[in-house]
Amino acid sequence: MLVSNKRQTLVKRSWLAGLVLSSALAAFSGQAFALEPEHEIRRLMLATEAAVQADNWAEAGEFLNRLQAMEGEKPAEYYYYRGRAMLKANHLNEARAALETYVSQVGAEGQHYQESLKLITDIEKVNRDNVRALAEGAAQVEEPVAVIEPAGQESLKTLRQLYLARTDREALVIHLNAVLDTAGWRRDKTVVRLDRPADIQYRVTIDNSNVNVQEIRRELDNSFVRKTSVLPVFGVNPQLRWDCEPAVAACWVYDPRDGSRLFQMTQNQDKAREAAQTLGRLIRNLQQGRSGS
Prior knowledge:
Blueprint: H1 2-32, H2 37-53, H3 57-68, H4 76-88, H5 92-106, H6 113-135, H7 153-163, H8 168-182, E1 200-207, E2 210-218, E3 224-232, E4 242-245, E5 250-254, E6 261-266, H9 269-288
Helix pairs in contact: 2-3, 3-4, 4-5, 5-6, 7-8, 8-9
């Protein structure tokens, strides 16, 4: 009888201990996820910084991914660490986008300002080498690139019919400008007013063997600044590179000569791909030299 009572007491104590432990774990778990977003962002930033200092980039990337998925304003250092993590993963264009965002937010007083500028320069050099290697037919480049293939004559015929154009060349110019018009980059991503022009737009024209690209940038005071660059088509690769970076909500089409940014567009992969594809077709058409064919 005494042994039986002891067993019951032990079972009861074991059950109580388990209950206390479960309650403690539940409370701990609840506290871990009870932080308000601003505090959770700060916590993850500290964890990211510690992981970077320990040269643990896998862990840093995990924290950065969790930060990216969170709503709420992130400190400028988030973009610096994201840029470095992207660079470690050899995603050069995403790294450059993040680092440029950091620089634009903190200015010359930023703790990592000088280092960020150096990293951006290094990325620019590597991209230039990649473009040169691609143009020379090298087997490998430092970073995978998105490329396009020339469209068949049927699709060009369809474009001519769609835009009532007389030539393939005219149809390609009209189509490229239509794509760029619908994919203008805007600072405010929450509300898009169709009666309000995008903050960055482009207009493309052709002149003999040149593609003229006019950038139209709307300033904060609603004034417009126009800048035109000329892209000679001979000697350039018509397979254009493009990519998108969710962290800064933008896509880019890159200049085939040196890998610099030619178009900055809204974050829409289909539009970026189509713009790169259409410009590549236009370049190829101009390289062929047939008047307006």
